[in-house]
Design goal:
single chain; 226 residues; mainly beta; Immunoglobulin-like; 2 domains; five-stranded mixed beta sheet; 55% strand; DUF4397; DUF4397 domain-containing protein
């Protein structure tokens, strides 16, 4: 059974290329375009991604994220197949997604807390950031319990659960970050150096499967000064 995500700009909610070519999926006419990227966070599964029956991504590997691409607003039936098995077979994952006018969004294929594949749509905050600052958003999309995210050993985000996100504006520069089990010093990811450029919006995905010991981070950056 399919389910439906509605992206709204108030909501707090990859490498390969989005290949629309001439076979653009059928969408309502005369709609303003959105900017949409896709993150693949399901370990061990290379996939092909289809929208309304048309292939968008092929041989899409775990831990990758596409650049944002223009997409007409409208309703999309997103189907994800093991690479080479679509579109006539049964998809590994399917969801109906409503893409609103003018949105900047990322569709994340990832694991639920208990390790089941799921799709989650996030709206990206790409509004202006003050000079000398960077926006940092961390999204928990891993099969793992609640975590705290630290910078230089100090908690920045606490009690973050799948599939939630938390956001803060921080000083631009390189941040030495790690992810620990909530309320502890038990490191489950990192440390990792995050380069946060002046004026950018940065999204970090904590993804993978704790039981399989393959948790990792993937960063996505929007805009900013050069």
């Amino acid at each position: 059974m399919t389910s439906r995500i509605h992206l709204t700009m108030a909501a707090s909610a990859g490498a390969c290329v989005l290949a629309f070519g001439t076979a653009t999926p059928a969408i309502p006419a005369q709609q303003e375009e959105a900017r949409v990227s896709v993150f693949h966070g399901i370990p061990g599964l290379t996939v092909d991604v289809y929208a309304n029956g048309q292939e968008l991504l092929s041989d899409f590997k775990p831990g990758t994220v596409t650049d944002p691409k223009s997409l007409d607003a409208g309703s999309y039936d997103i189907e994800i197949f093991a690479a080479g098995r679509g579109p006539d077979g049964a998809p590994a994952l399917e969801k109906k997604v409503e893409v609103p006018k003018g949105a900047n969004a990322t569709l994340a294929a990832h694991l639920s807390p208990d390790g089941k594949p799921r799709l989650t749509a996030f709206v990206n905050d790409v509004s202006k950031v003050d000079t000398g600052k960077a926006r940092l958003t961390v999204r928990h999309v891993a099969a793992a319990p609640a975590v705290d995210v630290r910078a230089a050993g100090q908690p920045v985000f606490t009690d973050l659960t799948n599939p939630k996100e938390q956001t803060a504006e921080v000083d631009a520069g390189t941040v030495n970050a790690d992810v620990v089990l909530v309320g502890t010093d038990t490191v489950v990811i990192g440390p990792a150096g995050l380069k946060l450029k002046d004026g950018t919006s940065n999204v970090v995905y904590a993804w993978g499967n704790a039981q399989a010991k393959n948790l990792d981070l993937k960063a996505q950056t929007f805009g900013g000064t050069q």
